[in-house]
Amino acid sequence: MAGFMNSPALRGAGLVILQALRVATVITLLTAGAASWILIINVQKSKPYFIFECFTLFFVSVFCSLLVVSELAFMEFIKIYLRRMWPVLSDHHGLSWLGIGMIIIGCNLLGMLNHDLDMSSALSSLVLAAGILSFIFGFLNFVCSFIWCDRKEGITSRDIRANGSLARSQRQYSEYGGSSRSASIRNEKTRSKFMFWKSEKDEEYMSGQAQSHPPYIITHHVRDIEAQSDSPIIPGLKRPDTALHPMNSRSSRSSRYSEANMSRF
Question: TM segments (predicted)?
């Protein structure tokens, strides 16, 4: 986003414009899906490969339905599904791929009018309008996705469309309800996409693996210092060497307990 686009007033205006564009996009996609089924019904069945033409139009209608669901994803489980399966259509990305998809749909519908179809003028006009609207609003979504965004802060056009001047990056929140540690690791990975350098500590933190330290080894020097230390009870009295402690001695015990060899009677 350019510098003048960082003002809250323009972000608030972007909320209104993008919401109006959202409504027009949903209506256009529904019209395009209906136009696809009109074309399926009116395909010339006498041609040998008409079945593939019908499948092509069927997939276009399914794609229109997917784009409508992505624009009307108000439930949380739908958002999670889009983030996992269709991330470019989720709330973590902008509207550029939505615009490209609508342009492809519009070109496909307008190209189908080149065939000889037995349709009335009203149905032909409906297909023509659906193709033109898909092309126009797809181009507008593509342009607006680059106008209302802030790549430095990770804010997309969908964030501005949802919150306006209070927009914050949605990718900083946990996607699948994990722990706070896993969420913070995802935040570091998100921020790393906009950084060209990473320190070793950052890489260690992002990998989630703490640096292992070797166990402490008591050397002979430490033992000598320990042996030369004073007694904690009597100051000035040297404590004996630790190696002479009975627990470190492998010799047999000095004292043995034995039972008296006496008769009980």
Answer: 21-43, 49-74, 95-113, 125-148
Are residue 198 and residue 157 in the same domain, yes or no?
A: no
Q: What range does the domain containing 185 cover?
A: 174-209
Residue 118 contacts residue 44 (beta carbons within 8 Å): yes
CA proximity to 145, closest of 104, 84, 137 = 137
Are residues 163 and 185 located together in one domain of the fold? no
Contacts 24+ apart (CB under 8 A), 1-10: 1/147, 1/148, 1/149, 1/150, 1/151, 1/152, 1/155, 5/147, 5/148, 5/150, 6/150, 8/164, 8/165, 9/165
DSSP class of residue 171 equals G
Residue 244 scores a pLDDT above 80 = no
Per-residue pLDDT tens digits for 21-67: 999 999 999 999 999 999 999 888 888 888 999 999 999 999 999 99
| Alpha helix (H) residue ranges in 148-219 | 157-163, 180-192, 200-207
**Domain tally for the chain?**
2
pTM over 0.90: no
Q: How far apart are CA 150 and CA 164, in angstroms?
A: 12
How many whole angstroms from its chain centre is CA 251? 66
**Is position 18 within any domain?**
yes
Sole residue written with tokens 């269709």? 86
In this structure, the answer to whether residues 200 and 164 fall within a common structural domain is no
Q: Which of 185, 209, 233 is the last residue of a domain?
A: 209
